[in-house]
Amino acid sequence: MTALIGIFLVRKRGLSLLFNARQSMSEGIMPTNEIKGGIFLLISGLLLITPGFFTDCIGFAGFLKPVQNLIATKAKKTK
CA 1: distance to chain centroid? Predict the structure, then answer.
């Protein structure tokens, strides 16, 4: 069941990211937020397809913007 929900969310969110990236590029702006969102979308989608309660929890959390921002901030500080 979570795999089906994950596929639906990945498809819906992926199309939105694609259109936003295309619009940003047409305005001459580098779509960094869309790229970051795409990376999180890919990881979250893979975790939702993988069986297990823990992977489902992490996969659904990866769709949330505050979680994405927290992980991105922590990743920038570790450089």
Answer: 20
Distance of CA 7 to the CA centre of its chain: 12
> For tokens 């999180």, what's the residue?
40
What phi, psi does 51 have (nearest 5°)? -70, 140
* Helix, strand, or coil (residue 2): helix
Output the pTM of the full model: 0.77
- Cβ burial of 52 (10 Å; 0-12, 13-18, 19+) is exposed
pLDDT in tens, 36-63: 888 898 898 888 888 889 999 999 998 8
